[in-house]
Amino acid sequence: MSNLERGILKRILSIVTIACCVLPLGAVSAQVGHPPGSSPYRNLAGNKWISLQTGYLGGSAGSAGVGPTDGMLMGIRADFGLTAALDLTGDIAFSDLQRLPIDPTQGADDRVVGTARQTVLLAQTGIVLRLTGEKTWNGLLPYAGLTMGLAIGTEVAADSLSNFNFGIHFLTGPQIGVRIHPGRRLLLRLEARDIIWRLTYPSVFFESPTNDPDSPPVLNPLTQDDSEWTHHPTLFFGLGIRF
Question: What is the pTM of this model?
Answer without folding.
Answer: 0.83
